[in-house]
Amino acid sequence: MGYKFRSMMPDAERKTGPIQARENDTRITTVGRLLRKTALDELPQLLNILRGDMSFVGPRPLRPVEIEVGKTNSESLDTIQLAAARMCIMPGLTGVAQIFASRCITREEKFKYDLWYGGHQSLFLDAKLIVFSLWISVNRKWDTTQKGFEKAL
């Protein structure tokens, strides 16, 4: 089991089902909003990295079932074409999709970023992604899509 700070109220998904947080999401607590804005909600993930369950860079860990962006029914990872290939890459604290993809795209679209990373993994790329993630955290810009994917990498 991974470690994580709770940033949403208890039973946050009772009415909606498993759905990704959105901008100004009313389910997020006041403390949770501060933790998310400053990226401090990710600190417990360092324990997951030390345990060997995650790496610093890689695709974000996934929920097995989630309501897809723009849909009303939950969808299992088993139904997404690129899911099996993406699951072969160790999850990470930060990754290409988290930095460069909009939060509003489907998981399948995010998987394309993750699979690109899987085919280009290197120590140099990881270092660049970690530095870029730190820059985004310091500037509190996680909720905006980062431009210049090709130039940045």
Tell me about this structure.
- The protein is mainly alpha-helical and 153 residues long.
- The chain has one domain (30-147).
- Helix content is 39%, strand content 8%.
- It contains 7 helices and 4 strands.
- The strands form 2 sheets. A two-stranded parallel ribbon has the order 1-4.
- A hairpin with a 6-residue loop joins β2 and β3 (74-76).
- The protein starts with 29 loop residues before the first helix and ends with a helix.
- 18% of the residues are buried.
- The mean pLDDT is 81.
Q: Could you report the average pLDDT, rounded to the nearest whole number?
A: 81
How many beta strands in the DSSP annotation?
A: 4
The biggest beta sheet reads: 2 strands, parallel
Shape: globular
State the separation between the terminal residues, measured CA to CA. 33 Å
- What is the domain tally? 1
Work out the strand percent: 5-15%
Unreliable segments of 5+ consecutive residues: none
Radius of gyration: 15 Å
Helix fraction by DSSP (H/I, runs of at least 4): 25-40%
Element-by-element helix/strand order = HHEEEHEHHHH
Layout of SSEs?
Layout lengths: L29 H8 L7 H7 L3 E3 L7 E3 L6 E3 L6 H4 L5 E3 L1 H5 L6 H14 L2 H17 L9 H4 L1
Parallel strand pairs: 1-4
Antiparallel strand pairs: 2-3
List keywords for this structure.
153 residues, mainly alpha, two-stranded parallel ribbon, two-stranded antiparallel ribbon, 4 strands, globular
